[in-house]
Amino acid sequence: MTDVRVAQRGKGVLREFNEARVLTAADVHVALRLSALSGERSEEVLLATALAVRAVRSGSVCLELGRMREVTVDETPGEDAVPVDLDALPWPEDAAVAAALRVSPLVVGGAAGPLRPLRLVDTDDGGLLYLERYFRQEETIRRVLDERAARRPAVDEDALTRGLTELFLDGDGRASAAPDRQRIAAAVAATHATSVIAGGPGTGKTHTVARILALLARQPGPAPRIGLAAPTGKAAARLQESVREQAPSLGLSTDLSAMTLHRMLGWQRGGRFRYNATNHLPYDAIVVDETSMVSLTMMCRLLEALRPDTRLVLVGDPDQLTSVDAGAVLADLVARPVRGTANPALARVVGADLDAADDPAEAALSASERDRLRGGVIRLSRGRRFGGAIAELAVAVREGDADAALEILRSGDEQVSFVAEDELSGLRADVVASAVAVTESAEAGDVAEAVRRSESHRLLCAHRDGPYGASWWARQAIEWVGQASGQRLDPEHWYPGQPLLVTANDHEARIYNGDTGVVVRRADGSLAAAFARGQEPVLLHLSNLSAVQTVYAMTIHRSQGSQYDTVSVVLPGEESALLTRELLYTAITRARIHVRIVGSEAAVRAGVGRRVSRASGLRRG
Ligand SMILES: Nc1ncnc2c1ncn2[C@@H]1O[C@H](COP(=O)(O)OP(=O)(O)OP(=O)(O)O)[C@@H](O)[C@H]1O
Questions:
Q1: Which of 114, 242, 248, 471 is deepest in the core (most CB within 10 A)?
Q2: What residue stretches are annotated with the UvrD-like helicase C-terminal domain (predicted)?
Q3: Has the ipTM of the complex gone over 0.85?
């Protein structure tokens, strides 16, 4: 039988790596095609080419030649999957690969024409092999950011200082105690052309964004034109909602809208954008939320399309899972060596915050935090939404401290629980209780309550398929709910209480990939789908839903950007390459009240220890 994962024309080393599931057929095809076009026959070069394609496919911007061997097999666990010994593969010597690339027509060009699809960049840690397109995008990002760092926007410091004092208040309406990193972040955004505001969930990123807009509006001169954007429709809708909610108390217009980055840039059929390097975006300030999900390509397009004097504020959580496409730009911008000189305006407007000693609520700025301010980078660290064990667990995971994470998980604190795979009674009880409660409200036509209750518990998995996957757990949950209710649930037919997941953006209906909702009964007895949207849920005809599925369990990737009261996370086996620190952190931070981890100590340790490694040159400088 022919295996579609194996490239039929592949030979030699490429074929062996393909059969070992390190390379896909598509990776091999690209290498073979370039070989045919350029005349390159070196097995070292073709393997490195296929691995560079693979690197991009798995989210890196380039292939680090010195870490070529740190690959994992593709996650397509067929029935017949046999374990692969990666060390036994015919890996070429690093030096031989580098030497072959240095003279390869694919890198230096050749007689066959101008084709030069690969770029080799030397660094202190060895070579980085890029597909040319990604090299150029990274170069553009670096160049635009450097040019922007050299100019500081004009700002009226008196108006700014007044605004900072009036907008950042404590619970009693007085100016908040120093240091207040939110106030510093707002000052950074006002005084730098590009600023990066990083922070975990509930650290007040959106709260700060609304105040940045208010500060800019209070500057003398015409009202600034503001662009609010996010990489996904769902994130854009949340940003808009949150800014509009805060607008009246800040003297801002309540009709500010947010849109996807694609829409802001004017995406056109064929993949071109209306706004680009020759036709700049018309805004005075642009705020991008959930920047961790922005790919290298989108960031490049955005930066190219910026007017040099437009303020850009990038907001997000660099510790979360990154974009599906290549690049981890936000994490790179936070981690890269600091550039730029100290901004004297910052010291003038928030000097008290910069110099403040430890406060009970917030620690003094560290030397490296101050240093990062030169580059316009600040991290909010004070949790404003939830304290307690969930937040502590998230911090332990983020910092890679598995012992601390396990200690918190086993502490008996009511916010966390940690159970083995065969101790499923608590999980089963939560799945059934939430389904019963949702169904009750859905049958009664209480739409708002049905939607609210559908966010009371969520079952999350690392994988979509396989024994630890969301599909398997969804079937298990349906069985539990069916047994409890005495009715067999059939997701093929709509029923009240049916939990829904949107799988593609639908701008008309204003529902977006990753949104969750529930089927409810209306007063006239008919069924409709309800989705959370601000204060009022939106109700849609079931016939208008084009891309939804029934969701009793979902992947952690899909849950990004949503929160639930209780989250149950079923960990895969410790060997799963998907089980990473970023995945665990993202899963834990989805929970508002309780997080239940189902799995072994070894799986927790493996997850905390394994980082998503996305190679890029941006991070290096
Ligand atoms: N300085 C503050 N004073 C009082 N409340 C605050 C402050 N900052 C944030 N909050 C409140 O804390 C909660 C979380 O803030 P916000 O939604 O801005 O955080 P976030 O970092 O954007 O979170 P997420 O990434 O999860 O959306 C909100 O209810 C907000 O009103």
A1: 242
A2: 551-598
A3: yes
